[in-house]
Amino acid sequence: MASEGILVVISGPAGTGKGTVVAKLMEDDGFRLSISATTRAPRGAEQDGVQYHFLTKERFEKLISENGFIEYAQYLDNYYGTPRRPVEQWLGEGRAVILEIEVQGCEKIKKLRPDCISIFIMPPSFEELERRLRNRGTETEDKILRRLARAKEEMPLSEGYDYVVVNDTVDRCAEEIKEIIRKLKAADR
Ligand code: 5GP
Question: Going by CA atoms, what residue is nearest to atom 9 of ligand 1?
């Protein structure tokens, strides 16, 4: 994947508010956000082609066999993957491309593109994470508990990331991430 753009991988446990932070980043013209594919069902008001491409397991597995993903992983009971074509195109155009993916996906991207930037978004505390996850009101208790358990496993993995940014407020967190990217661009890595 030769390119001049910057690949920015953003991870963080479910309920950290990383979706809101990423939406804030996207107000900046230079960024492009990869829309992942997933086999999970839409949540709340999510729409196909906006938050995710919602696919059947069969379709997802066909795309895997056609090498359609840069990376894919299983998270809880579903597949999630980054479609290859748009990301390669934007990188070729010199864009900063954001992948909002979980930790296994980040590890795969790092192997493929060691020059990527990885940023882990941390909640201010585990209690706050639980509160945010429950306030979404879109999931069953069982799903909330499984996401919280996964968050406990993921938080120590932040050590493998280039940067850890705390999402205390969305604006401050997004600004810190923009500053990281600005500095790296200026240093012309
Ligand atoms: P959610 O179901 O809450 O939207 O996402 C669950 C997890 O999957 C989140 O940590 C999210 O960042 C991650 N995720 C979303 N898209 C992708 C993807 O394309 N690849 C990987 N590896 N993880 C993803």
Answer: 102
Q: What would the 3-class secondary structure string for 124-166 be? A: CCHHHHHHHHHHHCCCCHHHHHHHHHHHHHHHHHHHHCCEEEE
State whether residue 179 is helix, strand or coil: helix
List residues near ligand 1 (CB under 6 A).
Answer: 14, 36, 40, 71-73, 75, 80-82, 100-102, 104-105
Protein residue whose Cα sits closest to atom 21 of ligand 1:
101
CATH class held by domain 6-188: alpha beta
What confidence tens digit (pLDDT) does each residue in 18-39 have? 999 999 999 987 899 999 999 9
Q: Dihedral sign for Cα 111, 181, 67, 93, please.
A: negative
Residue nearest ligand 1's atom 18 by CA: 81
Length of the chain: 189
126-136 helix and 141-154 helix, angle to the nearest 10 degrees: 150
**CA separation, residue 82 to residues 115, 163, 166, 184 (Å):** 18, 21, 25, 24
* Token pair for 148: 């919280």
Give the whole-angstrom CA distance, residue 166 versus residue 85.
Answer: 31
Question: pTM of this prediction?
Answer: 0.93
